[in-house]
Amino acid sequence: MLNRRLAPVPHLVFAALAALLLATPCLPCEDDSGCSRKSLQAELSAALHTLWTGRTELKRETVEEAGDWAEVLETADPDDEEARYAVGWLRAILHTEKDDWIASRLLQKLPPLASDLLNPLYRDALTHPSPNVRWRAIQWFQRQKESEALPLLENCGLWRKGRGWCPT
């Protein structure tokens, strides 16, 4: 006959194993790229949430760390849906952010990518009301060549006037 005092023991062992597995951020991988990518994506998601809903002080701290949390975009394929979704959020944040410093600093701190993944964000910045934000976009397109940005850059007078500020 089964001792009633020992009956809950298997349940406790199962609960302990489940808690251990849930507490582990990522199961060991053959290569750590999958684990680190999930961690970076979580960091990016948290940063986007802060930039969308956070207080000004938190947003300012978050943009200063953009080189870290946006690192996942450096290795993303331009066709990666998650990366394009994140860029869509960055564009929405750029359009709605009222603090010029946050918007300008965000563009300055994002990592320079070899791909054209962030080009739509910087194209939007070329038409932003802030001259500081427009200047960050002009700097971006000095490194990134894109035919869609040329008419916007010409409207800024960068090529004709030899200066970095777009007229409002």
Rounded to an integer in angstroms, the radius of gyration calculated over CA atoms is 23 Å
Helix count equals: 11
One letter per element, helices H and strands E, the order comes to HHHHHHHHHHH
User: What would the principal axes of the Cα set say about the shape?
Assistant: globular
> What kind of oligomer do you see?
single chain
List unreliable stretches of 5+ residues. 6-30, 159-165
Task: Determine the structural class based on helices, strands and strand pairing.
Answer: mainly alpha
Number of domains: 1
Describe this structure in words.
This protein is mainly alpha-helical and 168 residues long. It has one domain (32-161). Helix content is 66%, strand content 0%. It has helices at 9-23, 33-53, 56-64, 66-69, 71-74, 81-96, 100-109, 119-126, 131-143, 150-156, 158-161. It is globular, with a radius of gyration of 23 Å.
Q: What tags apply to this protein structure?
A:
168 residues, 66% helix, 11 helices, mainly alpha, single chain
